[in-house]
Amino acid sequence: MRIDLGVRWERVARAAAAQAVSLLVATLVVVVLERALGLRQASSVYLLAVATVAIGFGSVAAAGTAFGAFLTYNFLFVQPLYTFAVGEPSGILNLLLLLVVGVLIGRLTGLQRDRADEALRREREARAMFAVTRALASRRRAREALPTIVERLAAETRMSRVWIGLGPTTGQEQVAADSGAGSFPDPGQLFVLRRTPDEQRPEWVRINQPGRAATHKATEQLYRVPISAEKEEIGSLWAVRSIDAGPPLTEESRLLAATADSVGQSILRDRLAVQATEREIALRSDEVKTALLDSVSHDLRTPLATIRTAAGSLADTDIAWSADDRERTARQIDVEAERLNQIVSNLLDMSRIQAGALRPQLEILPPNEVLKAVVDRSTRSLAGHAVRVEVAQDLPPLLADPIMLEEVIVNLLQNVARYTPAGTEARVTASGDNGLIAIRVEDAGPGVRPEALGKIFEKFYRDPSAQGRSGRGTGLGLAVVKGMVEAMGGTVSAGRSELGGLAVRIELPGGSPLPDGDSLDQGTEP
Predict the structure, then answer these.
(1) Alpha-carbon distance 131 to 114, whole Å?
(2) Listed residue (255, 245, 163, 154) closest to 202, CA to CA
(3) Domain-by-domain residue ranges, the chain?
(4) Highest mean predicted confidence (pLDDT) among 191-205, 285-299, 313-327, 357-371
(5) How far is the CA of 303 from the CAs of 295, 300, 309, 312, 416, in angstroms?
(6) Inter-residue contact 265 to 231 (CB < 8 Å)
(7) How far is CA 162 from the centre of its chain?
(8) What b/e string do you get for 308-340 counting C-beta neighbours within 10 Å, with b at 16 or more?
(9) Phi-psi category of residue 34: left, alpha or beta, with phi > 0 → left and psi -120 to 50 → alpha
(10) What share of the chain is helix, strand, coil (3-state, %, to 5)?
(11) Nearest to 442 by CA among 379, 378, 503
């Protein structure tokens, strides 16, 4: 919307026409009342004309109408007629009362109209500010809302173009959003918004630009509102306005100032959010590094030390070894090597899970055979633990990657061996429900605290209260279990075991035999 001198003169002409029409109509009514009907002192009819003009055009036009009514009534209806002289003192009083009452009525009516106009302008300003605030609040980043904001500002403040530049100085600013297109204008004058203490009447201060010589008559003016955050200028809100439109109105200036403040605070909020995210990432990275180093320093070095000690003893020719001692030492080396292999495998598996590089080769597997085979192969690492396998009769086959499923069960059994006392009973069960195969690995050990159940599948998490034969673990076993089960399209959860300890429940999709022994590849390229 643009307002120029043509529009202003049009409004003045409309007000003058309204005054003339209202006075003419009122005069005709007075003629009928006084000369046709014989009523006297019908001058109060002119007050209706004054009120009508006041409602439509304000108190200034109403005052002019009241003065016109005073002259018209004096000229046409007060003796002597058709002159501005007054023959009777009472006539003077009536005319003065008409003028004073007319001005007062016009003033009061005009004030009400002005207040209504002010209320409408305030409402429009509030709506525009709400739109700006909503745009900033509904976007993930403040920069995403800036194009919408500059378009709204250009319409609401009668600016021909509005743009926002971000940078520490005006010379370093980069345009973040622009309501116009093409090259930027070169207006003849620059005005900068100066804030007032009450923030109700911002003032525009003209800034002289040395070294610039006007080569043509300027038709536009440039306005700048600094954008600040924490007392630091971070950019500017720029606007171009036609000289014919005059300076911005008070409510327009307030809207520009409030928008600049909101944009500044939103950009500051984005900066703080980025800094907080970076700090959180750095903190989590440090935690992971610390946990990994802790695991390497203890869980990797412990089996290595045991292997080196046992191997060194076997290589020592001064020690006389019996056949049983030599076999026991060799078995110890094998057990520790297997433990070391499992730790390294878990670290590698976790790296693959994080990178999204797991490619499960899904096959139709019989649960009974798979579970019994895994338990049999884990007998040595489960020394001292009695493990029962219970599979429901007529259980349909399951759909899983055989290698991953074996590693999942092995990790769960080693978790039992590590965190439960020797001789603790354990159980592996399988059952079907709604097309899913549920596998439970549970033990009769001390279990896990209820508040820790939701954390045991996190990387490097170890329940401080857990007491096992090894004393410590890497905290990767259950995290690997979760990653592999989910890669195969299943779910995993933990709870209280019927045996009294921890129960881990795995649910995998059931399947039907495929022709010719085909496999299903549900992996994706990393």
Answers:
(1) 25
(2) 255
(3) 5-125, 146-208+219-270, 351-521
(4) 357-371
(5) 12, 6, 10, 14, 19
(6) no
(7) 25
(8) eebeeeeeeeeeeeeeeeeeebeeebebbeebb
(9) alpha
(10) 55, 15, 30
(11) 503
Q: What is the pLDDT of residues 251-300, one digit of tens each?
A: 888 889 889 999 999 998 888 888 888 888 777 766 656 665 555 555 56
Q: Which two tokens stand for residue 295?
A: 């695991």
Q: Is 101 helix (H, G, I), strand (E, B) or coil?
A: helix
- Given a contact cutoff of 8 angstroms between Cβ atoms, the answer to whether 484 and 353 are in contact is yes
351-521: which CATH architecture?
A: 2-Layer Sandwich (3.30)
Length of the chain: 526
Is the four-CA dihedral 50, 53, 56, 60 of positive or negative sign?
negative
Task: For residue 301, count other CB atoms closer than 10 A to its CB.
Answer: 12
Classify residue 316 as left (phi > 0), alpha (psi -120 to 50) or beta.
beta
Q: How far apart are CA 415 and CA 431, in angstroms?
A: 22
Is it true that domain 146-208+219-270 has CATH number 3.40.640.10? no
Which tokens belong to 205? 């201060």
